[in-house]
Known about the structure:
The structure is a single chain. This protein is of the alpha/beta class. It contains nine helices and six strands. The chain has a domain at about 155-310: CATH 3.40.33.10. A six-stranded mixed beta sheet has the order 1-2-4-6-5-3, sandwiched between helices. It comes from Byssochlamys spectabilis (Paecilomyces variotii).
Amino acid sequence: xxxxxxxxxxxxxxxxxxxxxxxxxxxxxxxxxxxxxxxxxxxxxxxxxxxxxxxxxxxxxxxxxxxxxxxxxxxxxxxxxxxxxxxxxxxxxxxxxxxxxxxxxxxxxxxxxxxxxxxxxxxxxxxxxxxxxxxxxxxxxxxxxxxxxxxxxxxxxxxxxxxxxxxxxxxxxxxxxxxxxxxxxxxxxxxxxxxxxxxxxxxxxxxxxxxxxxxxxxxxxxxxxxxxxxxxxxxxxxxxxxxxxxxxxxxxxxxxxxxxxxxxxxxxxxxxxxxxxxxxxxxxxxxxxxxxxxxxxxxxxxxxxxxxxxxxxxxxxxxxx
Length: 321
């Protein structure tokens, strides 16, 4: 009977000492049979405090496991924080390869955006332009070209008229006088265009002139290059620069053609369009028109922008279809 009481007491102690968290315990259960002789008023079972079970109830090992679990979660949080910071760096890593497509776009150069190889030169930087238009070769001869060279237009007078019209209509909007045609400037423009190398050269014939170049627009549609690409597309980029003698040149390649076209100090222009079977420095699969326009006196002089580029008068918008 006393043995049964002892076993029940052991079970009760085990239940009371059980922790809230689930743990694995190894319990050594000892059954002790005690035979006692009870006499008088002696209290029995004075030797039954069950020392074995007390040891199991206070095992510290499971508490150490709980601490280990806590630290594991802390590291997990740290790992999560590391991943978050890595994600913040990703845009930088993503933006680094972003310029990779740009060389492709620049090489093909079909974009209306313009560039200049001499934007840092203080004496007449010569901007360039390009076009997405793919024009058919022009084969009609003109009076000023050799028999072996493709012509720049069906009639030279028409070509000159289009050049002057598409310059002067915009110059008038900026209070600049009309340009006149110069055969000398036309001749130096032809020498550069005949070389079929897409680059600036303002030293031919002694130099001293400004220069705009572009490709992809035929001689018959030359107004599209001057008006649509060189003036209209660049007009807004100069909006905040009027009145500045030395404007910020960061975006010069985006407005350098525009500024040369409306430069008050320029009085003459001469252009030439050559159809090149192969135009060096340009990725092209077939013949492509290459246009050179030379200006005198040259524009885009540092320190002289405020005196030579006036705010627009607000004339009606003009574009070549």
